[in-house]
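Example 455.
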Amino acid sequence: MRILVIGSGAREHAIVVALSRGAAPGDPPGAETPHELHAAPGNPGIGTRATLHDVDPLDPSAVAALAGEIGADLVVVGPEAPLVAGVADAVRDAGIACFGPSAEAAALEGSKAFAKEVMAAAGVPTAMAHVCTTVDEVADALDAFGAPYVVKDDGLAAGKGVVVTSDRDEALTHARTCLERRSGAVVVEEYLDGPEVSLFCLSDGATVVPLAPAQDFKRALDDDEGPNTGGMGAYSPLPWAPADLVDEVVERVAQPTVDEMHRRGTPFAGVLYCGLALTSRGVRVIEFNARFGDPETQVVLPRLATPLADVLLAAATGRLEHVARLRWHDSAAVTVVVAAHGYPGPVRAGDEVEGIDDAEAVPGVHVLQAGTAAADDGGIVSAGGRVLSVVGVGPDVAAARETAYAGVDRIGLRGSHHRGDIAARMPEPVAGTPGTPGTPGAPRSSAGADVEAGI
Ligand code: AMP
Ligand code: GLY
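Predicted structure in complex with glycine:
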C-alpha cells in the first residue's frame, strides 16, 4: 500500500514506525516495510522511513491533491487541527480512503459543549457540566459545584485550555480569558476524582475496535506539579486497572457514542480517544478526542502485533467488522518526553539535539522525534515544545521504565527538561478483577509471546 501520514509529531513518527513494520507480527521496528510511506509535513525522524512533502496539513485541498499525486491508497490524519479543518472530508471527496473523522464528527473533540450534548443523548457517563457564556454564569456554576474547580475552554487548546484549581479567582480568571477568545464559551464541570486512563477506540462509523489502555502524565513537573501540557510521558499496559475495563468502556462509552453519531448522520470513523477517570462511582468520560493521543500512541503501538496498516485501512473503508481480533505483544512500553527549554510556555528553538543514536543503542529503546528540524550540518536541532519521545519496551512496566530512562540519559539538549517520575508510581488497583501484571485482561502467557486480544 501507499500510505500518506499527515502531521509532524512523535505520535505521527510512532504511526509511521508501526506502519513500516512488516506483515509478520512482531517484526522489530526497521524491518523491511511492505508499504510505501509518505508524510506531510513530517519531521527528520519520520523522514528516515517516509518521503516528506512540504504541504500545509491544514489545507484540505492541498492534502487531497498531494494524496492524488502520489496515488495514495490510504491517508492517515494524525493531529486534530487538520481534522477540524476538513482534511479527511477533502481526501474522501477525492475518492481516497482516509483514516480520520469528518470535520462534523471531529467536533466531538473540537467542541467540549458538543461532546457533552452527544454524551447526554447517548447515555454516556461523564462529569456534570454547565456551558457558560458570561462571567456571571461561570461564577454561579463554580459555586454550584464547589472546589476543586474545573474550567475548560470550549474550543481546541492543545491540551492547555483546562484549569483545575481550588482557587476560585484563578478559575474565574481562566474563564474570563477563554470568553474573550474566539470560542466565546467555557465549560465548568464537576471535579472527577480517581486515576485517569486513555483508551483509543478505532471505528469505521459503526463497529468499534479498542486498542490497549495507557496512562498519560499531563503535568509539566514531577509529582504532577506545574501546568498542564500536551503530555510528558505515558505507559501501557495498566497492571492496576480492572480486567474488564476495556469491555466496559466499549459497551458504555465508545459504542453508544459511535451509534449516536451514526444516528445523527455524522458517522465517526477514525480514533475515538476516550479520556476517562476511574472514579469511586465508576468510569466517567473526562474528554473525547478525535485522534490518537500523544504521547500514549508511542506506548500503545509498539505493543500491537497485528499490522497497523490493515486495521486502519479497514476502519477507513467500513470493514472493521471483518478484522480478526487484534493481537498484542505481552510486553510493556514507557515513553518519556524530552521538552525544550520553556515548554509548555514559549520555547527556545535551534538547540542541537545529541545522542539519538547512542540512546537507540540501548536494547529496547527507540527515539521518536516531534519538535525537531534538520540542521545545515546534517544534525538535528530543536524546533518545538516537545522535542523527543524516548520509548523503552520491556517485559513489564518497571523494566520498560528503566530502559526508557537509560535512553533519556544519553540524550543531550541544552536547557531541556523531562519528568523523572513517568510510570514510577501507579495507582492502587481499582475495584474489579485485576489483570495479569504484564497484560491486563489477558490470559497469562510467557514473556515476549503474542497474546490474543490481550489488552
Ligand atoms: P481535558 O483537556 O479535558 O483532557 O483536561 C485536561 C486534564 O485536566 C485532564 O487530563 C484531567 O487531568 C484534568 N481534568 C479535566 N476535567 C476534569 C474533571 N472534571 N475533574 C478532574 N480533572 C479534570
Ligand atoms: N495526551 C493527551 C492528548 O493527546 O490529548
